[in-house]
C-alpha cells in the first residue's frame, strides 16, 4: 500500500513552491473538529491539492479535492440562454419592463411610474406575475411596505378585470389574486417550518429559519397595510392573529408567530380598535389578553416580552407609538422634518412670506421711516460693547459706502442666488445685484451662477438660474461679453468638467442657445 501511494505521488507533477498554497499545521488543526469536509468554495477554485504543512518532508500529506462542478447550459434545464439583440416574446419583454419599474419605485416617482406600469399590464398572465413581484418586493423591503400597499390600492382601482381562464367562470381581478397570494403564503408557513427539520447543517438551517421568519413578518405587515387601505376585511385580520397565537395544549405559540401577531397589532391595532363591528373589537381584546398572559411567562424570550409590553403601552396611550415607524418618505417630507428638528422656518412658508428689502438683507443701513427691531445697549456701545463684555475683540465697523471685499461679494452672491431659488422674484434679485455695487464683480457673478447650475440636481432650478442670467443681461447689469467669457472658461476644459458634471455640455449649450435666442449673444459668438 505504501509503495502504490509512493508511485502515485512520484507520477504527480510537482508544482513549484511559488504556485503552492501552504498552511501551517497548527493553523489547520484549529478547524479539524468543525470542518470535516472540503468547503464548496475551495472546490470551485479548481485547486488540485492543499499542502498541509510548510515542511517539505510532509508535502506528501495531501488531500485530493473533487473536481469543480460542470457549468450547466440553459438548454439542458429547459431555459433559453440570453443573447444580445435577440427577439423577446411580448410577455417576457413586458415583465422585464415591470421589474425595472418596480426597482425604481419610490414615493417621489410614484405617480409617474404608476402610469408606466398601467400601460404594460395588458393580460391576465402579466397581472399574475406582476402581483408576485410586488408581493416579493413588499416582503423583502419592509421600509417600503406602506408604499407597496398604496400601489396595490391604485392598481386594484385602475386595472380592469380580465376574462376567466378556460374551465372557470370567475373573472380575474387584481384584489382577488393578491389576497390569494397572501393566503397561500400564510398557509404555507407551517409547512416551511416543518421542512427546516430535515436540514442538518447548522449554518444552512439558520439561514433558512431567518428566511421563513422574514417572509412571515413581511406577509403579515403587508396584510396589515392592505387592511388600512380597506382591501382586507376585519375578520381576516382577527382570524390571522388568532391562528398565529394558537398552539397545542400545554405548549406556547412559536416565537415567530407571536412576533408576527404583534407586528399586525402594531401596524393596524388603532384601526381595529376603532372598528364599527363589536365582534372585531371583542376579538382584538381577546388577542391582547392572550398576549398579556404570554408576556408574564418566564419561558418566553425577553425580546418577545418587551415587544408585547410595547404593544400594551401603545394601547394605553390610545395607540400612539413611542417610537417613530420608519417608512419611505418624499424628499419634501424629509426636508420638513429636518427643518422642524433644527427649529428652522419651513421653505414652503418662506416662499409665501414677503421678503425683506434688499438693503436690509445685504447688510445696508436703515432707510427713512425704518424702525430698528432691537434697541441699542444701555451702555451705548452697540455691538462693540457686547463683544468686549464677552471677552472677544471687536471688529471695526464697516465704513458706509466702502467697497466690499471679494469674499463678501462671493458670500452675498451665494445668498442672493439661494434666495432667488426660494422666491423666484427676478425684480428682487436684480435689486440685490445692483446693491452689490461692483461692476468688476459681474464676471465672477456669472461664473458663480453657472457653477450653481451645474451643481443643482433639479431641472427646474437649472432653468430658472439660466433665466435669471438672461434677465440680468437684458437689464444691463451683466454684458454679453461677461456671459461669453464665462462660457468660454468652462468650454475650454469641457472634458474635465464633464467628468464631474456629465450634463455640463447640455446645460452650457442650453445657456448659449437661450442667450442667442434672447439677443444677448450673437450667432458669431458660438463656436464653429
From TrEMBL:
One of its GO terms (molecular function) is mRNA binding. Keywords: Initiation factor, Protein biosynthesis. Residues 408-528 form the MI domain. Gene3D superfamilies: 1.25.40.180. Pfam families: MA3 (PF02847), MIF4G (PF02854). The keyword Electron transport does not apply. GO terms for cellular component: eukaryotic translation initiation factor 4F complex. Residues 384-403 have a biased composition (Low complexity). Residues 382-406 are annotated as: Disordered. Belongs to the eukaryotic initiation factor 4G family. This is MI domain-containing protein. It comes from Haematococcus lacustris (Green alga).
Amino acid at each position: 500500500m505504501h509503495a502504490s501511494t509512493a508511485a502515485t505521488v512520484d507520477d504527480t507533477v510537482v508544482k513549484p513552491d511559488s504556485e503552492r498554497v501552504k498552511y501551517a499545521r497548527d493553523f489547520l488543526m484549529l478547524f479539524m473538529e468543525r470542518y470535516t469536509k472540503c468547503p464548496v468554495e475551495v472546490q470551485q477554485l479548481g485547486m488540485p491539492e492543499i499542502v498541509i504543512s510548510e515542511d517539505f518532508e510532509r508535502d506528501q500529506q495531501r488531500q485530493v479535492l473533487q473536481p469543480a462542478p460542470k457549468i450547466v447550459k440553459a438548454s439542458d434545464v429547459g431555459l433559453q440562454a440570453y443573447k444580445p439583440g435577440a427577439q423577446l416574446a411580448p410577455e417576457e419583454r413586458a415583465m422585464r419592463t415591470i421589474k425595472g419599474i418596480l426597482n425604481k419605485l419610490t414615493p417621489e416617482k410614484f405617480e409617474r411610474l404608476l402610469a408606466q406600469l398601467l400601460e404594460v399590464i395588458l393580460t391576465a398572465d402579466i397581472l399574475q406575475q406582476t402581483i408576485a413581484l410586488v408581493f416579493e418586493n413588499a416582503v423583502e423591503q419592509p421600509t417600503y411596505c406602506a408604499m407597496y400597499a398604496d400601489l396595490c390600492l391604485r392598481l386594484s382601482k385602475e386595472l380592469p378585470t380580465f376574462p376567466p381562464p378556460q374551465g372557470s367562470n370567475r373573472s380575474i381581478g387584481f384584489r382577488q389574486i393578491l389576497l390569494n397570494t397572501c393566503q397561500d403564503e400564510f398557509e404555507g408557513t407551517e409547512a416551511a417550518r416543518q421542512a427546516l427539520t430535515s436540514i442538518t447543517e447548522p449554518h444552512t438551517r439558520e439561514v433558512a429559519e431567518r428566511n421563513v421568519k422574514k417572509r412571515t413578518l413581511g406577509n403579515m405587515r403587508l396584510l396589515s397595510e392592505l387592511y388600512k387601505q380597506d382591501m382586507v376585511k376585519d375578520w381576516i385580520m382577527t382570524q390571522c392573529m388568532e391562528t398565529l397565537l394558537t398552539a397545542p395544549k400545554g405548549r406556547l405559540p412559536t416565537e415567530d408567530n407571536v412576533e408576527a401577531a404583534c407586528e399586525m397589532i402594531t401596524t393596524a391595532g388603532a384601526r381595529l380598535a376603532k372598528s364599527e363591528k363589536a365582534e372585531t373589537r371583542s376579538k382584538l381584546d381577546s388577542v391582547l389578553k392572550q398576549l398579556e398572559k404570554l408576556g408574564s411567562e418566564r419561558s418566553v424570550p425577553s425580546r418577545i416580552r418587551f415587544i408585547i409590553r410595547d404593544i400594551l403601552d401603545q394601547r394605553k396611550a390610545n395607540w400612539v407609538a413611542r417610537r417613530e415607524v420608519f417608512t419611505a418618505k418624499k424628499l419634501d417630507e424629509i426636508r420638513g422634518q429636518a427643518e422642524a428638528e433644527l427649529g428652522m422656518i419651513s421653505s414652503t412658508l418662506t416662499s409665501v412670506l414677503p421678503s425683506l428689502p434688499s438693503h436690509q438683507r445685504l447688510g445696508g443701513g436703515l432707510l427713512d421711516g425704518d424702525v430698528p427691531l432691537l434697541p441699542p445697549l444701555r451702555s451705548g456701545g452697540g455691538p462693540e460693547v457686547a463683544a468686549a463684555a464677552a471677552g472677544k475683540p471687536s471688529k471695526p465697523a464697516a465704513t458706509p459706502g466702502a467697497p466690499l471685499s471679494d469674499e463678501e461679494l462671493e458670500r452675498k452672491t451665494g445668498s442672493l442666488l439661494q434666495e432667488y431659488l426660494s422666491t423666484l422674484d427676478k425684480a428682487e434679485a436684480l435689486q440685490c445685484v445692483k446693491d452689490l455695487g461692483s461692476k468688476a464683480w459681474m464676471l465672477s457673478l456669472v461664473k458663480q451662477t453657472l457653477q450653481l447650475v451645474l451643481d443643482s440636481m433639479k431641472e427646474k432650478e437649472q432653468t430658472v438660474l439660466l433665466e435669471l442670467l438672461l434677465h440680468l443681461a437684458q437689464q444691463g447689469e451683466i454684458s454679453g461679453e461677461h456671459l461669453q467669457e464665462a462660457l468660454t472658461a468652462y468650454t475650454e476644459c469641457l472634458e474635465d468638467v464633464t467628468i464631474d458634471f456629465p450634463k455640463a455640455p447640455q446645460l452650457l449649450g442650453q445657456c448659449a442657445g437661450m442667450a442667442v435666442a434672447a439677443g444677448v449673444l450673437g450667432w458669431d459668438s458660438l463656436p464653429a
